[in-house]
Specification:
Elements (H helix, E strand, L loop, with lengths): L5 E3 L8 H7 L9 H18 L5 E4 L3 H12 L5 E5 L3 H12 L3 E5 L9 H10 L5 E7 L1 E2 L4 E2 L2 H11 L4 E5 L18 E5 L11 E5 L1 H9 L10 H7 L10 H17 L1 H22 L2 E2 L11 E5 L6 H12 L1 E3 L10 E5 L6 H17 L8 H11 L1 H10 L1
Parallel strand pairs: 1-13, 3-4, 3-5, 5-8, 8-9
Antiparallel strand pairs: 2-10, 6-7, 9-10, 11-12, 12-14
Helix pairs in contact: 1-9, 2-9, 5-6, 10-12, 10-13, 10-14, 11-12, 12-13
The protein binds pyridoxal-5'-phosphate.
Length: about 400
């Protein structure tokens, strides 16, 4: 089809031309001084995005590798990890922990709410023998569009006076939704390249506190490729123990420059604004947002419930065939029941308008019952929103 494809899944996201051009540079010697200068710049820039002064380890892997690295570097066989069933990705991380030989206490959830800080406090207070060694939470559940409140969870851990490590998956929140590794007392932050960082898939991250580094010195789960220590040591000089993803690091360098130019506060405000416009459109259509708690609405995606008797995947197929737009599928137990609108990464008002128009036309084309003009509600919000205008002026 002529024109640009609309990639509106909640990651991988649209990669800016600037980043693609950076990736297209010739690959250089990763043991040479030009590479070391690039790597040191990238590692510094990453610390600003994670809001940390602690090391950020970069892996040539998708986010799943960084999940594994977080667990194997800090824990020992049969340690207990407290996890919460917020959705599909929390469930996959649970499965991984079990496969690695950890015991998982998995608090059941309805896939429409985030982690309840009271449940965290209750579980940890009840753990008198201190068998729980880590609390692992997905910040933004990409399968549901629900964002858990990390500062409130940290406060719950502190109220319980519990020494467990705190691990947070920010794969679909980093560089889209405000996140502060140091201030929020997180020990391991897990992230990936293909969402808010506006890169193709292929690199992932662990930001690591001193407490996590200390835990890694006596943790007994087998680990080799994922070891932090060699990487942290070699990174100080700008090098890696094995071959890094050189060209993706060029892209990351450019993406970090773009984030710095826009300003992180503006990046977060832009995501919140597009999320609000999207929710107004969904309400205008008379459809239901999956997330039940407005305090947990996601800034990076919105999951929309399909009316009973209609298949969300048939709708997505029709939208792709007619309008060349990819929407996110329902994952796990939400298959066929929801579709997800990604509004994160390299994204602006008119891209959102096009996206919402595609959804509205798709609803009509598929004969899915819906009201009025959700797009009109979103447009009125975008056109009239003073915060949006102010943030554009600041960015300009
Ligand atoms: C919140 C979250 N965690 C983990 C993952 C798994 O990451 P990957 O598919 O990059 O391995 C994803 C992927 O979308 C995700 O959204």
């Amino acid at each position: 089809m002529p024109g640009r494809h609309f990639l509106q899944i909640p990651g991988p996201t649209n990669v800016p031309d600037r980043v693609l051009r950076a990736i297209a540079q010739p690959t250089i010697d990763h043991r040479g001084s030009a590479f070391a200068a690039l790597a040191r710049d990238v590692l510094d820039g990453l610390q600003r995005v994670f809001q940390t002064s602690e090391p950020v380890v970069v892996y040539p892997s998708s986010g799943t590798g960084a999940w594994e690295a977080a667990l194997v570097n800090t824990l020992s066989p049969e340690d207990t990890v407290l996890m919460f069933e917020t959705g599909h990705f929390a469930t996959l991380w649970r499965d991984m922990a079990s496969r690695l030989g950890l015991r998982v206490e998995f608090v059941a959830g309805d896939w429409r709410h985030g982690v309840d800080p009271r449940a965290v406090e209750q579980k940890l207070t009840g753990d008198r023998g201190r068998t729980i060694k880590a609390v692992a939470v997905v910040h933004n559940e990409t399968s549901t569009g629900v964002t858990s409140r990390i500062p409130a969870i940290r406060q719950a851990i502190d109220r319980a006076g519990h020494p467990a490590l705190f691990m947070v998956d920010t794969i679909s929140s980093l560089a889209s939704i405000d996140y502060r590794h140091d201030e929020w007392g997180v020990d391991v932050t897990v992230a990936g390249s293909q969402k808010g960082l506006m890169l193709p898939p292929g690199i992932s991250f662990n930001a690591i506190s001193d407490k996590a580094v200390a835990a890694s010195k006596h943790a007994k789960l087998p680990r080799a490729y994922w070891r932090w220590d060699e990487t942290i040591t070699m990174n100080r000089q700008g090098y890696f123990p094995s071959t890094p993803a050189t060209n993706l690091l060029y892209g990351l360098h450019e993406a970090l420059a773009m984030l710095r130019e826009e300003g992180m506060a503006n990046v977060f405000a832009r995501h919140q604004r597009h999320a609000e416009a999207t929710r107004r459109a969904v309400r205008g259509w008379g459809l239901e947002i999956l997330c039940r708690n407005p305090a947990e609405y996601s800034g990076s995606l919105t999951a929309v419930m399909m009316p009973e008797g209609h298949d969300a995947d048939a709708f997505r197929r029709e939208v792709l065939a007619r309008f060349d737009m990819s929407l996110g599928t329902g994952l796990g137990k939400l298959a066929g029941r929801v579709f997800r609108i990604g509004h994160l990464g390299f994204f602006n008002d008119l891209m959102l308008c096009g996206t919402l128009c595609g959804v509205q036309m798709g609803l009509a084309a598929c004969g899915i019952p819906h009201n009025g003009n959700g797009v009109g509600d979103a447009l009125a919000f975008l056109a009239g929103d003073k915060a949006g205008k102010a943030s554009h002026r600041r960015a300009a």
